[in-house]
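As noted in the main text, all predictions were made from sequence alone. Below is one such record, for Protein N-acetyltransferase, RimJ/RimL family.
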Amino acid sequence: MEPVELDVGALRLRPWREDDAAEVLVVQQDPEIRLWAGGVTSREEAGALLRRLMGQEGRVSWAVTGAGTGELLGSVSVHSIKPAQGNAQIGYWTVPAARGRAVAARAVDAACRWAFATVPLERVELCHAVENAASGRVAEKAGFTLEGRLRRSYRYGDGVRHDELLWGRLADDPAPDLGSRS
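Prediction:
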């Protein structure tokens, strides 16, 4: 399944390209991204990460950019896609300058809408470490419902297993109100 470009007001979700590696390497040095996503330490690792994002079965990944500028603002991926079950998971990260501007919530919403219509899916799950309150705000803004806590369910970039909060969004849930989509 290949990602298509999605225009979302002031944002564009576009397929990752191998020439994004240098920019991804810089972004992956951010302490928040390293804590929750691990990060890469060389251009070669950044290239390998992008090749995995672009070519992994059961995953569709986008670079989130400014629609007018092309500036990299983040990433969003629908992964663990199980068409027979109608389920998938979603993950994302944003650069520091994009945080607090609903960039992640808009990108997650756009990716969910695409997945519900295209795969098609019935359910998308979002998990994040309990300590990552910002991801909880993204989930809520993007129309997800908090469903529970998963104890010591995932080892994050810090090497520690964290409890996670599980959120779900169904295809027929009300669309989130993200205000102006510009």
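The longest helix spans residues 103-118. DSSP finds five helices and eight strands in the chain. These features were considered when defining construct boundaries for the mutagenesis experiments described in Section 2.9.
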